[in-house]
Amino acid sequence: MVDARGAAAGCLAGVRVLDLTQFEAGPSCTEALAWLGAEVVKVENPKGGDPGRGSFGAAPGRDSWYFLQLNANKKSVTLNLKSPRGIELVKELARKADVFVENFAPGAIERLGLGYDVIREINPGIIYAQVKGFGAGSPFEDNLAFDMIAQACGGIMSVSGERDGPPVKPGATLGDTGTGMLLAISILGALYRRKGTDQGERLEIAMQDAMLQYIRVCFATQAMIGKPAGRAGAKLFSGGNPPCGIYPCKPGGPNDYVYIYTSRANPAHWQRLAQLIGREELAHDPRYATGAARVEHEAEIDEMISVWTRQHDKHEAMRLVGAAGIPAGAVLDTGELLADPTFETRGIMQTMQHPGCGPFKMPAWPVRHNGAPPALKPAPLLGEHNDDVLSSWLGLGADAVKGLRKDGVI
Amino acid sequence: MVDARGAAAGCLAGVRVLDLTQFEAGPSCTEALAWLGAEVVKVENPKGGDPGRGSFGAAPGRDSWYFLQLNANKKSVTLNLKSPRGIELVKELARKADVFVENFAPGAIERLGLGYDVIREINPGIIYAQVKGFGAGSPFEDNLAFDMIAQACGGIMSVSGERDGPPVKPGATLGDTGTGMLLAISILGALYRRKGTDQGERLEIAMQDAMLQYIRVCFATQAMIGKPAGRAGAKLFSGGNPPCGIYPCKPGGPNDYVYIYTSRANPAHWQRLAQLIGREELAHDPRYATGAARVEHEAEIDEMISVWTRQHDKHEAMRLVGAAGIPAGAVLDTGELLADPTFETRGIMQTMQHPGCGPFKMPAWPVRHNGAPPALKPAPLLGEHNDDVLSSWLGLGADAVKGLRKDGVI
């Protein structure tokens, strides 16, 4: 399977992305394009670059793991955007680019003189894509946002947490990566139309707006019950067919649980489960035989299942419940996922060989193209591709690049 | 802005998607393609169709809100896959399709005689895309999965919940829609390459694997601290720069909180906040002046801020904190989001005019293409496009279609 790696990388061969993004919402979007083979050129401040390089516990002089993860397979060019020549070079690169992406604070790109109206004049065929916290026309359109602000304002937190507890922010960075994925879809749609026509397009996404895409089902719940969707711990707020939820396993650590789900669509799930836990008599007992009846006895049923799950560790419980034909999943943590050898053999986890930051095992793009996910290439060092890109995109020679360096432009 | 609606719809004009998906992971993927203008034809069982139609509290004889949301802008054709002629028609449609997508249980599509090897023979240029719960090569590759199983096994739940509480399943359906978005990206990449070359491709995604994409930052945390990333309620597990989290607002309902975040990258956030809450003296007090010092006094600081936030409702608190230049967001629920008029004027929420299910307001595709999100068209009635598609794709006349109906094939 490993031999097929790189199949995906050909998808966007020849597509040039000028990437003025930083932190996560923007970089996650351009990284998806890089996984599929686009030439993504990060434009970074010569002094330190993307602030994500030095954040999140980065060791002095090293890039953070966070940065490495979000910038795999990209190139880096340094340009001083406070220098007129730096801005001029962005425009020259934009003339050669197919896609331009930025996620600066509201108004910043326009203040730099690199707004859509300017770039479109230079390159009418460009796809110009922007991420902001709040949409144009929102009362908060000038406000800053970060992942957690989007998760609060976009409804995600209101449907995450214990039933009677406060809202929880999921560990998944939906405000950032969740937004980036949706913008990548629209960029790719625009690229498809553009191929052969050179039709440019402006794309804008707001992190708050993007959150609604991930909780659409909660809006269906709201329509059904006539009031806001709420929280239900590990269970389904919309009810579901008990048993459904996490059940404690030995030895009782913070993630020693197995998720068991018996589907409404398949009454056999409950019958199989009753048999598995050695309580065959329950399968046809009228108190438990139907989903509606089990709703009335949910706590009691959960306890009966827990008696069984507590005798097993979560891996064994998942194997036994799954093998009995009932949907089941152990609650796995990041350490367990990293240690699982099948992720590595399948190419879902790959190891970045990064100069200075050593080998770093990380999740790769999870879609298999003709049998394997795309191959991981290291995140770039700051300015690593100055010569490469300024030469191949703009035709600048070694002396010209040396001059830019001497003048503090790159 | 509303005038521009439909700009996106042109992106994938002429792209034909043969859609054998049901419930959410598959349908969310093909819906993204439909928003961008692909002709997505759902192939459904003549008896009831996509099981999502009748689930999730659907009124008798009506489609569920859940189904409407996940199938906007698509067409529906009924085909009985238990009849040889039904299978034959799927193959004839596949011959005319650009993309084929399915998310049946493991092994089911092959048992139907519609596996990749078969379809590739018929149409070597097709993009054949599959969603499964677990990847080929995983010990669980034959297991069923649902959204919550993927969230358990893919690490999402291990990083969601209160610090000392059990894992929580976020209300966002990452296992389903989160997976569908990543597959859509790969399909679009493959479509881009195929345009002009007719190069086919097989794509596969596992819901468990897809989850890693959304918690990559937690793997960075694991690399940083050398142990699994954990849970932190509404705060950041990786620490962060206190104050950071949700603060209670009046009148004290379950979602009456405002998220306040003071960035590590900008010390002014804390100084502005101290001033806003009338405690200017704290801004330069050594006990609170730096992020590191505030980590030591987090509970105390949270209480000082809460004294202020409790005097305001969450909307007012968000306005005041945001206007002071500090990232802030009210925790909004599905009811508040539905009622916000700016979502409607901006086209982020649109109303489906569905025959039988009345007007239904729902989130639309959140990316603005040339100023507006794409326009919403209703989800199809079961078999609504039998004549249309069998005629336009296969050239069948009215009599032939009538015969298929009489024979129980459609």
Fold and architecture overview:
Two copies of one chain form a homodimer. The longest helix of chain A is centred in the middle third of the chain and has 21 residues, at 174-194. Chain A is α/β, with parallel strands linked by helices and 410 residues long. The first copy, chain A, contains 17 helices and twelve strands. In chain A, strands 3-2-1-4-5-6 form a six-stranded parallel sheet, sandwiched between helices. Chain A has two domains: 2-214 and 342-406, Rossmann fold, CATH 3.40.50; 244-336, 2-Layer Sandwich (formyl-coa transferase, domain 3). The model of chain A has no long low-confidence stretch (mean pLDDT 95). The first copy, chain A, is elongated. Chain A has helices at 25-35, 65-70, 84-96, 108-111, 116-122, 147-153, 174-194, 207-214, 216-225, 268-276, 291-296, 298-309, 314-323, 334-339, 341-345, 386-392, 398-406, and strands at residues 16-20, 39-44, 75-78, 99-102, 127-132, 201-206, 244-248, 257-261, 328-330, 349-354, 358-363, 368-369. At the A-B interface, helix 2, helix 6, helix 7, strand 6 and helix 8 of A face helix 2, helix 6, helix 7, strand 6 and helix 8 of B. Strand 6 (201-206) of chain A pairs antiparallel with strand 12 of chain B, so a sheet runs across the interface.
